[in-house]
Amino acid sequence: VAPCPTYFIDKELLDLCPSLKIIATPSTGSNHIDVSYLQEKDIKLYTLRESDIVNQIYASSEFTFNLLVSTIRKTPYAFQAVLQGNWREAEFHFRGRELNGLVLGIIGFGRIGSNLARYSLAFGMKVVAFDPYVKISNPDIEQFRDLHEMLPEADVIAVCLHLNSQTYKMINDDLFNNMKKGVY
What is the β-pairing status of strands 44-46 and 22-24? Predict the structure, then answer.
């Protein structure tokens, strides 16, 4: 699995630290660390994923929602036009869609996915979700057991998965071909 950070904590680096006993990463992901080599060397790994504090962190969820709103409402382009003094001349280019009434499909209903659902419902979006490991109890969210059935329903799709060997390349041509035309 390709690491998200530009570095990778691997055998070469770890062998330079023969007395290392613990690695703690301030992230929920561990795809930037050779976890199998850590196990082989009996080095403990701590991430935010297993901590109690992770459920008190909203920054990633809020940023995800911000990206969703910015994309649909074309905020970056409008912002640039205002900075350049071209708002009135080009405002017709920035008329995005309203969130209200759009269907958000969430793939992965963990901490970020469930927070995103809550924010989106507050903006009048319909929320559908796929996560085979979670039972969604919110009656305002339709849970799909088959990802291929959910995709054509969504106007907007958010991928809120932990990157690991099971989810790597999960989003592929087959899934893109099953999405409705014009999906965000």
Answer: parallel
